Q: What sequence folds into this?
């Protein structure tokens, strides 16, 4: 992470490693916590909740996976940041539940950059409208954008998608929208993502191994 940041003269401290712990048991998660990781990401609410109670305080949890509407009430206020807001009805439900709990929920808008079918995320042409709508909801704090680019054997394959996202965020920022965070990059392409401006990288396999 530091090497990638230094290649493009970025401050490594502006990049947060979100350790993705899906499929990883609490004992193994404690090992990475002992190694200094305290921002953890899960991609399913049902899997996360028992781990959150098992591991106790001192961890910041992020939800990085698809969020079903009926799981919103369990997610709001539990996850510090929800990376996967991709439709207005989900944003509205998050806003409603956050209001009920008397909190402000931090979120990112997820984009399906390559318009892949079966992938979550708002289509590129719908991004600006959704971002504006989410930013206007009083109990959500929109912090930025998230992307999962098409699977590519070569990490360079992700670069145009990361670059596109960073440029869109910059344009929308100029329009007054607060999109300082870019969640992009996983085990295979986090270095490219950092070079392209990622502020949050989501890494599982490179830490825990495959199948752990
Ligand atoms: C699993 C997952 C990751 C981590 O992927 P790795 O390739 O294991 O690093 C990142 N983001 C999301 C949304 C995931 O579901």
A:
């Amino acid at each position: 992470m530091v090497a990638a940041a230094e290649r493009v003269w970025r401050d490594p401290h502006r990049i947060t490693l979100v350790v993705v712990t899906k499929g990883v048991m609490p004992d193994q998660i404690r090992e990475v916590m002992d190694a200094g990781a305290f921002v953890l990401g899960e991609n399913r609410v049902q899997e996360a909740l028992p781990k959150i109670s098992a591991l106790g305080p001192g961890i910041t949890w992020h939800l990085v996976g698809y969020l079903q509407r009926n799981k919103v009430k369990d997610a709001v206020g539990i996850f510090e940041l929800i990376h996967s807001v991709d439709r207005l009805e989900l944003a509205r439900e998050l806003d409603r539940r956050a209001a009920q709990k008397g909190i402000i929920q931090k979120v990112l808008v997820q984009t399906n950059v390559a318009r892949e079918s079966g992938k979550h995320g708002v289509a590129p042409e719908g991004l600006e409208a959704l971002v504006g709508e989410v930013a206007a909801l009083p109990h959500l704090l929109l912090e930025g954008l998230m992307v999962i680019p098409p699977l590519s054997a070569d990490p360079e394959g992700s670069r145009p998608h990361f670059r596109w996202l960073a440029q869109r965020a910059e344009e929308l920022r100029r329009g007054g929208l607060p999109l300082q965070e870019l969640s992009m990059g996983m085990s295979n392409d986090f270095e490219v993502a950092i070079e392209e401006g990622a502020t949050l990288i989501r890494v599982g396999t490179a830490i825990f191994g495959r199948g752990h």
DSSP finds nine helices and eight strands in the chain. The CA atoms of residues 154 and 188 lie 8 Å apart.
